[in-house]
Amino acid sequence: MKKWDLGLVYPAGKPRLLLSLKSILKNPSGSWPNRLDDLVGEVSSVQLLFPEVVVGYVVVLDHGAPTKKGGAYRAPSGEELAPLYARFKEELAALARRRPPLWAQGLVEGCWVLEIDTHKTPLLLRPLETAAEGEAFLDLLLEELRGREPLLFLDQGQKPL
To answer: pTM for this structure?
Structure first.
């Protein structure tokens, strides 16, 4: 079973919220299908044991990632990787919609895509939008967790509804 990158496990041994952190920093055309396959596999495994778990997926995409052509790596030119990453984000969004009544295994509650370009300064593309998307991502995960595990959010002395 996958070792998760970040998780809330309470009580001991029962995952309530899990985050998977991935990146595509080299050979994007060969890597992105693998990232989606990895996601579905690792999420399905944990959802078999804990169907109520909330799962988020964070991925870093490098628009300056070297691409493999003819057995050799080369730097991409211009916005060469933009269409490839657009397709990846579309397919990732299709997997990030696990809400009632769509409880299919292999889906996640949310995703957050951080786009960088290691050949430019600043490194992070669209920093303000990325920060806002990150806040929305975390809010979504916490709202899903609150809906499934409301007792985790009770203050001392507060009674459940």
So the answer is: 0.90
